[in-house]
Amino acid sequence: MRIISRPRARFLATIGLAAALIASLTGCSQVVEAFNGLNAGQNATIAIPTPNPTASDVARPFDSDFSYDGSTTLSSEVADGLELRIDVWAADPKRTQEWTPDSEKAFGFAVNVYDSRVDEKAVLAQKRRVYLSMVSITSQVSQSAMNQGQMMSPFQFSADPRTLVPTDTLRSDRGLLLNSFQGGLLVPETTIHQLPADAYGITLQFALQIAVEGSANDDNSFATQTVYQVLPIAIYSPSTASE
After folding, report:
1. What per-residue confidence (pLDDT) applies to 170?
2. Average pLDDT over all residues of the chain
3. CB 231 within 8 A of CB 173
4. Nearest to 127 by CA among 90, 79, 164
5. Which of 15, 122, 217, 234 is placed for a possible disulfide with 62 were both Cys, Cβ 3.0 to 4.6 Å?
6. Residue 115's beta-bridge partner residues?
7. How far does Cα 93 stand from its chain's mean position?
8. How far apart are CA 212 and CA 166, in angstroms?
9. Strand, helix or coil at 98?
10. How far apart are CA 125 and CA 33, in angstroms?
11. What sign does the CA torsion over 76, 78, 79, 81 have?
12. How many other CB atoms are found less than 10 A from the CB of residue 86?
């Protein structure tokens, strides 16, 4: 039996671990080069290639999923297994990199609710009803350090959703019913007008007043609450938009 000294054994173990690591990250020719480096001495350094950054790794000028994808979903759990969603999308221009301070910037949004306790096709009596009585959106603009605070709320929106939908849409004194077969609230387009020339972002702040049914088909189990969500939107300089 051949006896291997402890330092030599540790060195061989290091080779084995390094080989496994390199093989998972590099091609065969690079594995051979790495082994040659190890054989040259125990203090040899193995250079492991660093992957090139992907598009998602590149820093954004104003961190906004909406601006990056052209749409986003803001989700809130309003009760156990009961989710309220605000879907927002760019309407005009659809390319969010064309959203500049002096341009008209239109977006659409929809509000719906999903009850995971029952099948999506279940009748209304089996679902926990959610009524929406008010939608309010305020905003805060982000500007260069020199001019911060000039426009605190350049965009505002406030409406009773019952005034925004056809008169035959299901409703009550509690508000517009969101989880009916007719669907929830749809606002196809609303516009953010001119912003300060040095604006590089705007944050929309949603506030939704809702009444949530605690148990399905139980008029006495409703409780009211206000749902808050924020939506950051990047604003690009005209030169960036033209590119």
Report:
1. 94
2. 80
3. no
4. 79
5. 234
6. 82
7. 20
8. 22
9. helix
10. 70
11. negative
12. 21
- Is the confidence at residue 10, as pLDDT, over 50? no
Report the DSSP beta bridge partners of residue 141. 202
Backbone phi, psi, residue 13, to 5°: -65, -40
Q: Which residues contact 199 (CB under 8 A, 6 or more apart)?
A: 101, 141, 142, 143, 151, 235
Q: What are 181-192's pLDDT values in tens digits?
A: 889 999 999 999
- CB contact burial 63-83 (16+ within 10 A = b; e otherwise): ebbbbeebbbebebebbeebe
Where are the chain's structural domains? 1-51, 55-242
Cβ atoms of 89 and 71 closer than 8 Å? yes
The confidence score (pLDDT) of residue 120 equals 84
- The token pair at 68 is 């990056």
Each residue's pLDDT tens digit, 84-132: 999 999 999 999 999 999 999 999 999 999 999 999 889 999 999 999 9
Both tokens assigned to 230? 């924020």
List C-alpha distances in Å: 58 to 53, 63, 186, 216: 7, 11, 34, 47
Q: Locate tokens 């929809």: which residue?
A: 110
Straight-line distance from the first to the last Cα atom of the chain, in angstroms, rounded to the nearest whole number = 72
How would you list the strands of the sheet with 105-115, edge to edge? Answer: 71-79, 82-92, 105-115, 185-192
Distance CA 187, CA 234 (A): 21
Q: Rounded to an integer, what distance in angstroms lies between the CA atom of residue 18 and that of residue 5?
A: 20
Q: Which residues of 95-111 are buried (b: 16+ CB within 10 A; e: fewer)?
A: ebebbbbebebbbbbbb
Please check the confidence at residue 155 and state whether its pLDDT lies above 70: yes
CA distance 222 to 219: 6
